Amino acid sequence: MSAVCRSLLRASVRPVPGFVSVNSRLCSSTASSASTKPTQEQQKVKTSIQRPAPSTSHDWIGPPNRLSNMRPIVYRAPDRETQLEKRLRTLRQETEDWNHDFWTKQNVTFSQEKESFIASQLRAKGLSRRDEQGRNRSLDSEEMAVFYKNFLDTNRTRHANYNKEWYRRNFTITFLMARVTLQNMWNNLSPANGGKKNDPTAT
């Protein structure tokens, strides 16, 4: 039971700011450490303290956020961006931010409820949170399996709604990507355009 719960939990709680300019989608390797008990300020949902403006030539990618565990991305806005390309970029950016917000709230809630569960179980045993050496006491895997199962059951509807919205967004993004690709192919092949991109206002 505990192994199954841990496996399901990894699928429901995603793993943990400066940005780097990338031409080949490489990322900075400087990752900050995760906090087990976020402060009130840490619990506020934010994508980055300093978010750069979109570049015309490359994406901006930062190191993993310590609350959402996701790398923040700012997608490039190419010169002479068409309305269709802008629509695609905007949806991709909104989806990145939506994902960040969801997993920040989810991970903070998970950490808080886990800490509360451990403390309550230790109190029931007449134990304090820390041992004589000042180290945090923990529960065994069978005891934690109860928490994992309860957390998954409590958040089942929330996870289901997230998955539905995630698939809806990805379907739309894929559809828009196909339209942008076809538009660019047509512009490159059309003799009337001379291989030039259409007016940026084209949809």
Characterise the protein shown here.
With 203 residues, the chain is mostly helical. It contains four helices and three strands, in the order H-E-E-E-H-H-H. A three-stranded antiparallel beta sheet has the order 1-2-3, with no helix packed on it. Helix 1 packs across helix 3 and helix 2 (83-124) runs antiparallel to helix 4. The protein starts with a helix and ends in a 14-residue tail after the last helix.
Question: What layout of secondary structure does this protein have?
Answer:
Blueprint: H1 2-12, E1 20-22, E2 59-61, E3 73-74, H2 83-124, H3 141-154, H4 156-189
Antiparallel strand pairs: 1-2, 2-3
Keywords: Membrane, Mitochondrion, Mitochondrion inner membrane, Transit peptide
Pfam families: COA8
Organism: Neogobius melanostomus (round goby)
